[in-house]
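New to this. Look over this protein:
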Amino acid sequence: MFKSLKKLVSRVIDDDITALAAQVTYYLLLSFFPFLLLLLSMLGYSDLKSNDVLVYLSQIMPKSTFDLIYTTVIDVFEKTSGNLVSLSIIGLIWTGSSGFRAIIKGLNKAYDEKETRSYLKTLIISILFMVGLEVVIIAAVALVVFGQMIGGTIVTKFHVSSKFILNWDIIRYLVTLSGMVFIFAALYHFTPCRRLTWKEVMPGATFSTLGWLLSSLGFAYYVNNFNNYSSVYGGIGGVIVLMLWLYITSIIILLGGEVNALLAFEREGKEKPKCKKY
């Protein structure tokens, strides 16, 4: 166990994961607000009010990040338009696909593979996975944030037993976890040049899912209870918190690929080539 952990740390250093994660974070940060605008614009066509969304978002976001998007949520709900949706989609495709191409670069580096596919093919793959990830995020938000509301509606309209709520809570969290594992597994299965079976990518997908959930919850708890970035950084405190959270997310995704690559090399009885020293 210690030996494998030592190898993983060595691989992280050799592949310069922290620098790649910073590159991914940059594009994810650029895509965050187009995605937020798109999601809120879609919710604007529903019966939900801005206050309903704000109440639930305040429960899952660090306070400084919540303050950052507070005005945006209200403005989008009051001024929903087709032009805003179109601009959000265009911005999301450009920035999101760039972020995924950086992830592909990191996964290829983990397996010591050179990119042999055309730029157009990698662009299409990036866009497809960006859309897939956004769908999973929207579904996760709907199930986790609005899960109780959805469960209450089902009980009221279909006159289901009150015991259904307990089962519904278990089901919605299991579905959310399964969806996240699936999208991470698909990411590690399809995006790098090296092809692995679904069974071979499951360790990294499971690691990324659990790692992202635990790190996000831990980071949100730390920010809300032990640190006040707004008092240190002023008005940009929310941006700093958002950047740190996206950076942690990027590292977790790339670490999942490194875990799969480490296991693949161990199965083949090979070591990843070391960088040459001059």
